[in-house]
Amino acid sequence: MYLSKEYKAGIFEEFAGSAVNTGSTEGQVALFTKRIAHLTEHLKKNRKDFNTQRSLQMLVGKRRSLLAYLYKKDINRYRAIIKGLGLRDIIK
Q1: What is the pLDDT of residues 13-61, one digit of tens each?
Q2: C-alpha closest to that of 81 among 36, 89, 18, 62
Q3: What is the distance between the alpha carbons of residues 48 and 34, in angstroms, rounded to a whole number?
Q4: Predicted model pTM
Q5: CATH label, 5-85, candidates 1.10.1040.20, 1.10.287.10, 3.20.20.70, 1.10.1610.10
Q6: Which of these, 23, 89, 29, 16, lies nearest to 59 by C-alpha position?
């Protein structure tokens, strides 16, 4: 698999605070962002892979809902994760 245990632990260490804090919103958003980037590259090469396209759309929706939750819960954490991952501000 393209995301090894060590790689995931590094993502959670960087964004969630510790490698074992896998349930944090920031860690989940960071992991979804890495997976979205991987699937986007795959779809650039394989345009007609509709199963991957649907998976990508579902991941984007999950990330968006987590970001909306974080925006309502704590706007400073939301702004920090947006800046850290280089995402656009989707909540207007």
Answers
A1: 998 888 888 889 999 999 999 999 999 999 999 999 999 999 999 999 9
A2: 89
A3: 22
A4: 0.89
A5: 1.10.287.10
A6: 29
